[in-house]
């Protein structure tokens, strides 16, 4: 069976549709985490407020700084993937928070919620059949949707591991 995507005019046979579906399923699982490593949600669950802002000895970041960095970076990748008018952030200043701790509990919760929401938006982007996973974005320099999905998963996983390391050093893991 052949399907034509209304927005792109591209035609995809049922085998290609199945391949795409399997790829999107695997990317969704990768973005949600939990197979070979702890999920982001588990890593930040029940972190005492007083310890979110502590920089363990010899480490240049607190748990809050890592969490906020994940939020900023994931948002930036989502923005790049959806906005042809994307404006690049300045590295490293725009990718890290300006403070070692959240302003209050509401700021912490808002950051955690935003990470979930932006991840869900990115997964929805992947699931839209009219969004080609492999075609480079017109506004980039070779990046495509599948690369950006793997970038989010890789980046979040890396920093989730650091969150666990900080928790271990603080005696809260």
TrEMBL record:
Give residue ranges for domain DinB-like.
40-163
Which Gene3D superfamilies does the protein's record reference? dinb family like domain (1.20.120.450)
Matching entries from InterPro entries are given as: DinB-like (IPR024775), DinB/YfiT-like (IPR034660)
Instruction: Identify this protein by name.
Output: DinB family protein
- Species: Compostibacter hankyongensis
Q: SUPFAM superfamilies given for it?
A: DinB/YfiT-like putative metalloenzymes
- Which positions are tagged coiled coil? none
